[in-house]
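Q: I'm writing up a methods section and want to include an example of the input and output format. Could you take the sequence below and give the corresponding predicted structure tokens, formatted cleanly so I can copy it straight into the document?
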Amino acid sequence: MQAGVSIGEAARVSGVKVPTIRYYEQVGLLPEPPRTEGNRRLYEARHLSRLAFIRHARELGFEVDAIRTLLDLQDHPGQSCSPADSIARLRLQDVKERIARLNALKAELERMIEGCSHGTVAECRVIEVLADHAKCGHPGH
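A: Here is the clean output for your methods example:
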């Protein structure tokens, strides 16, 4: 790789949009790259690797603060990995809870649809349940 690539090229290579790259610099996830005499950013391989890490972490749903901690761990490989494990476990628990909520929503929608007689709106179970949450089979969603 050359001495560095422009922010547009970094965005293309990493799959991270230009405004998002700037945001990551602002919040301290991505170190500010060196600049040309014309004040253009020049992203090096280490920046692109970090962008790939951040992008993958975001795709897995990790929040910025968690990513910051994970990046710090990556930057200091001699540390214990227990903080990374804890962060991943919390994310997994969140995913499991979201799946449970989605399954409850799925079941309720299926119940509403099954109760619909395809007659008139006056007999429509979908409208009835939406109008009165007490008739919902899963009030916790």
